Amino acid sequence: MKRRVLLILMALVLVFGISACKKKEEPKEETKKETKKEVVEEPEEEEVVEPDAANTNTLTGLPTLTDGAIGKRPVAVMINNAQAAMPQYGISQADIIFEIPVEGDNTRLMALYGDYTQVPKICPVRSLRAYFASYSEGFDAFMIHWGMDDTMQEYFDALGIERFDGISGAGGMFGRDEAKQAAGYALEHTGYVEGSMLPQVLTSAGRRLDLAEDKKDNAFVFNKLDELIPADGNSCNKASINFGAQSATLNYDEASKTYKKDMNGSPQMDSVTNEQLAFTNVLILETQISVRDEVGHKEVVWDGGGTGNATGYYISGGKIQKIFWSKDANNEKSRIHLFDENHNTLKINRGKTYIAVNYANRGTFE
């Protein structure tokens, strides 16, 4: 009996032992190791800026120059803007037009043409004021005028302006519009320059035709070709500028994406092309303007103070934004610098530009 009990106990021990061994030998579940994928950051693509075509007009940023004008200097022409002188002609082809007050707070225009071989016949040509020269020098332009403010002769000489004065004839380019004279226009409203003669006159006079090295790039920093980016601000379908005795109004035309110009409430027309003046860009540059003599000649702070803090407005594509502007202090040959409100360089659209240099706070916008 004792032996049977012993055998039973031994059998139980053997069974439990085998069971325990099996439990120990059961393989553990393998834990899968997570493999972290290495994230490789792609480098940001740099904006590829295509170089402008060789025939790019430096005033507009558009490829419109004739072969003979590539790398050559532009032309600035002083134009009578008195109400009694209307209508003008030859002005619709201008690439840039400045409008600035003169005596009595009337205004005068300075029209710039980027292709010296394509300057049209222009009338009425008028006399030169010092501050217009301060701007034309920034474009390395030839200056065409009829008379000038003689009290600034030393200033003009010091600048070394290359100019042609209708009073001296200048190679036969100048004349009087007989039709206007017959219609009763005062003599000062009838002077013209025959722009087609300019290449011959420049060559005969041995004038430097090539642009200065620091003026061979675009006059402004432009947006890309074939894109029109509205100004970074509120809508602006109408900009009205009060110069004092005269006013300018720029109305946005959605179809052409340009601002069409009125003068004193009426469309400002070119009587030969029958086109209203129209601009892709409108710049209003505010500065200090005062009277400097008994005649009423103006003193214009043409560099905006030279600090980059003069205020202004950029209008394009149906919108307006406040900007800052300057020219290098006491350096007429410097370019006009444009900045946004964060003082970053402002890009403008390619095309024709109207620039009003005026008293502060004389603009209203709708």
TrEMBL record:
InterPro entries in the cross-refs: DUF3048_C (IPR035328), DUF3048_N (IPR021416), YerB-like_sf (IPR023158)
Region of interest: Disordered: 25-57
Gene3D superfamilies from the UniProt entry: YerB-like
Boundaries of every DUF3048 domain copy: 59-202, 241-355
Biased composition (Basic and acidic residues): 25-40
Biased composition (Acidic residues): 41-50
Top-rank lineage group of the source organism: Bacteria
Name of this protein: DUF3048 domain-containing protein
Organism whose genome encodes this protein: Aequitasia blattaphilus
Upper lineage: Bacteria, Bacillati, Bacillota, Clostridia, Lachnospirales
